[in-house]
Structures are given as C-alpha cells and as structure tokens.
Design brief:
single chain, 242 residues, mainly beta, YmcC-like fold, two-stranded antiparallel ribbon, 1 helix, 14 strands
Length: 242
Amino acid sequence: MQKIYPIKYPKLSDSYWVRGFCFFLTTLFYACSSLDSTELQPSILSTKDYLMQEKGQFCVFSVHQISYTLNQKATESLFFEKHIVIDSPNDEGVLVAIFRKNQENTNWIETGRKLVVLQSGKIIEIQSNQTQCILVNPIEVGTRWNFQLYNPTKAQQAQITRFLPPMTYSHKTMSNLVEVELFKDSSALSLQKKQVFFAPNFGIVFSKESNVSYCYEGNCLGKGQINYGTIITYELIDYGKE
C-alpha cells in the first residue's frame, strides 16, 4: 500500500516564505498608493497655463440657478453666459467682456467686464470693485491663499483640493484639471461655498456656488434642509475664437 505523507505547510520561521510574504505586502502597498490623487498631478505647473490669453478667445457656459424662499417651492432657471477676451494688452493680463442671454436663439447682451491679471504667479480677477485671487503657484494639493484681496473684514481661505482625471466639456476631453475651493463657511445653520475646476488654456470650466441657510427648528436642525438662498452652477458648453 502506498504510504501517504502529510502536506507540510511553510512556517513563519521559514525565511524564504517570510521574505516572499513581505514582498507581496510591499507590492500591494505601492500598488494601492499609486491610485492616490497625487498621481494625477498635472504636467503643467504654472498659473499662466490656466488662462485664456488670446484676443477673441471665448467660452460659453450654461448657468443653472436654484432659488429657495421661505414657505415656497424652489424655483429653477437656466440662462447662458459668454466670456470673451476683448483686449490682451500684454502677457500679464486680459480684459474679458461678459454677455448673457436667457434663450439660445436670442441675442447676447453685455452685462459687465472683468480684468484678469497674472501677478507674481497669482491669477487675480477685478470686477465690480472686488479683487479676488482665484489661483496661485505652486499648483499642488494643499496650497492655500487669501481669496479676497484688500478686504480684511472678509477673510476667506482658498485652497487647491485635488487633481482631477480627464473630463469632457463641450465635446472636448480635457486633462490637467485642478479643483479649487475658493471659499467655504459651513455650519449647521448655513453654507457659503464656491468650488471651481480649472483647465489649461480655458481657466474655469465648471463652478458651483452655494449661499443657503438651513432650517433651524428642532425637527430639521442639522439635516441640511434649505430654508432660503441660492445655488448657481456654471458648466462650459462651447468655446472658440472670434
């Protein structure tokens, strides 16, 4: 009769098995680490690359606005904005005209202008007597700066929150996108927050701004039920050069 020998399993004391197991764990650790958002860090690392720079360059956005009022249902509206570079005096800034229309088949009406300046590695927007810094160097997750310039009574901290995978806007797949939180003031009673996505050669291609107050009564406190306020979302739907 054939003799059956028991299977001998490796012991933890067997050095080769231990080394192999440690190598497996190390490989697994680095494989998981490679999925971290830092792997998406853009190859373009300068604020200048995240600007519209040529005269005639434009972006068109669909704008979705939700308005909340006390004791009434939320109302929604959709309109369009066009941002076009009308002057590019030098490499350090551009003048942008802003147009609006409520329906696609109507004419554009100019509603304002803004100056976008590149100064000491900072992208600064000047509009309606407000000076706001929307992006700074270095383009790294965790970079922080003051959003409202020259307004110490309204100190707001902006920060780069993450690098984004390629995304499609207006049938164009864009890479090297950066997500920025321009400001955030959150509590159980209210939320003021603005989040934007930057894409090279376009600037902001998406933004969402919330300015809402929550229900503060006992049965809804802390549940995120909006009493009143607005949420406005911009999304790029067209671009080109005139």
